[in-house]
Write a structure and sequence with these properties.
Order of helices and strands: HHHHEHEHEHEHEHEHEEHHHHHHHHHH
Oligomer: single chain
EC number: 3.6.5.4
GO molecular function, one term: GTPase activity
Strand order of the largest sheet: 3-2-4-1-5-6-7-8
Largest sheet: 8 strands, mixed
Radius of gyration: 29 Å
Catalytic activity: GTP + H2O = GDP + phosphate + H(+)
Distance between the termini: 34 Å
Mean pLDDT: 79
Number of domains: 3
Bound molecules: guanosine-5'-diphosphate, magnesium ion
Structural class: alpha/beta
Shape: elongated
Number of strands: 8
CATH architecture of the largest domain: 3-Layer(aba) Sandwich
CATH class of the largest domain: Alpha Beta
Low-confidence stretches: 352-356, 428-439
Number of helices: 20
InterPro entries: AAA+_ATPase, P-loop_NTPase, Signal_recog_part_SRP54_M_sf, Signal_recog_particl_SRP54_hlx, Signal_recog_particle_SRP54_M, SRP, SRP54, SRP54_GTPase_dom
Helix content: 55-70%
Family: Belongs to the GTP-binding SRP family. SRP54 subfamily.
């Protein structure tokens, strides 16, 4: 998958202090390949990676994160920008606000209409659903069942088999006749299995007749490149205002979101991810970028690290480690630093590959509690030099921290091991950095 391949290509970048044209080339190739596999149009993927390269080259690598993470962040931000940058809300200013729902048969229009009705009802709006699919009696029944489930009235005309435009107009008249009960009307329409002139004419006629405040185009994200062609044709006829991407609960990566946005230049507004009425989300370019990258939440990890990690502190610490001057107090500071960054399990699970492994592990910030208590029960001198801790002192620390001498001994042993290990890492890192500097 994309995540693994990126990681592999990023290995090349490890240990590099600066991102250069050469060390980023392989990563960009992987990114491009992966985008194309995720149904992103070739040209879009190409110009996208060019953009990323421009942004990345020459960037200093922040100490707290490695170059690969920085590229992931750049890729993520660019992806989000490509999908519109920010979420675009639907227009509900008119009274009543009329929302026309279009798309192919099976794309998820009726399901989405119900979901949107519930979503808006929860926001306190008075919603009427209009069953505009006059060709299949089952379609009206489907909408009625959904309406009942979510407590939203459905306007339909069981006898009408000829004129969808008239039906929709009747529905709107009905809503208006109810004096303020309905300030929002959602029109579900008939689709066909493929683009079809009669269907297009009908939906265009409905739009012309009712002049909706918002016309949405619903598309099944599983249909890949076809979704792009369908979007283009609907847009040419309807000039819709926004796109709804459905069935994102499937194993699709969501690359269609990028392609559609770049081809029709209309904002994506909602994503539908399941058959339950609650399974609707406002479209967030940022979240979709996460999904396309499929890299856990590495982006927020990078952001957190950037926010919280004091570079100066890090340098000092590294020196101390290398000179074997790491103390209990430093240990305590580190724990507090980690805690400031959030829950340790959440943090660890942001690292690709680690999240799954930790799923069933019982771990949270309370694992630090005992350690903190013990260190806090030590005097400053003891924290600087744990060697001072003889039997009497250990007993005092144990009592002060509400633990026992065995726990104190465990911590001391652990601290010793950690210090040894960190000394090796820090020493090695220093040597590597010197070598890189000399090269
Ligand atoms: P329409 O023909 O465009 O009105 O499409 P429907 O709303 O009837 O949906 C077609 C099928 O897709 C139905 O079986 C829905 O339950 C299903 N469906 C719709 N949206 C989603 C979704 O987001 N996820 C999943 N898994 N199924 C969906
Ligand atoms: Mg339908």
């Amino acid at each position: 998958n994309l995540s693994d391949r990126l990681e592999r290509s990023f290995k090349i970048l490890k240990g590099q202090g600066r991102i250069t044209e050469i060390n980023i080339a392989e990563s960009l190739k992987e990114i491009r390949r992966a985008l194309i596999e995720a149904d992103v149009n070739y040209k879009v993927a190409k110009s996208f990676t060019d953009e990323v390269k421009q942004k990345a080259i020459g960037q200093e690598v922040i100490k707290a994160v490695n170059p690969s993470q920085m590229i992931v962040k750049i890729v993520h931000d660019e992806l989000a920008a490509l999908m519109g940058g920010t979420a675009t809300p639907i227009n509900l200013k008119e009274n009543p606000a009329v929302i026309l729902v279009s798309g192919l048969q099976g794309s998820g229009k009726t399901t989405f209409s119900g979901k949107l009705a519930l979503h808006l009802k929860k926001k306190g709006r008075g919603v009427l659903l209009i069953g505009g699919d006059i060709y299949r009696p089952a379609a009206i029944d489907q909408l009625k069942v959904l309406g009942e489930q979510i407590g939203v009235e459905v306007y339909s005309e069981p006898d009408n088999k000829t004129d969808a435009v008239a039906l929709v107009q009747n529905g709107i008249r009905y809503a208006k006749s109810k004096g303020g009960t309905f300030n929002t009307i959602i029109i579900d329409t008939a689709g066909r299995l493929a683009i079809d002139e009669q269907m297009m004419r009908e939906i265009a006629a409905i739009k012309e007749a009712v002049r909706p405040s918002e016309t949405l185009f619903v598309v099944d994200s599983m249909t890949g490149q076809d979704a792009v062609n369908t979007a283009r044709e609907f847009n040419e006829r309807l000039d819709f205002d926004g796109v709804v991407l459905t069935k994102l609960d499937g194993d699709t990566r969501g690359g269609a979101a990028i392609s559609i946005h770049s081809v029709v230049d209309k904002p994506l507004k909602f994503v539908s991810m399941g058959e339950k009425m609650e399974a609707l989300d406002v479209f967030h370019p940022e979240r979709m970028a996460d999904r396309i990258l499929g890299m856990g939440d590495i982006v927020s990890l990078v952001e957190k690290a950037q926010e919280q990690f004091d570079e100066e502190e890090a340098r000092k610490l590294q020196k101390k480690l290398a000179r074997d001057q790491f103390t209990m107090q430093d240990f305590l500071n580190q724990i507090q630093q980690i805690k400031k960054m959030g829950n340790i399990k959440d943090l660890a699970s942001m690292i690709p590959g680690v999240g799954k492994a930790l799923k069933d592990v019982d771990m949270d910030n309370s694992v630090f509690k005992q350690t903190e208590a013990i260190i806090q029960s030590m005097t400053p001198a003891e924290r600087e030099n744990p060697g001072l801790l003889n039997g009497v002192r250990k007993a005092r620390v144990a009592k002060g921290s509400g633990t026992d001498v065995a726990a104190v001994n465990r911590l001391l042993k652990q601290f010793d091991q950690t210090r040894k290990m960190m000394k090796m890492v820090a020493g090695g890192g220093g040597a590597m950095a010197r070598m890189a500097g000399a090269a």
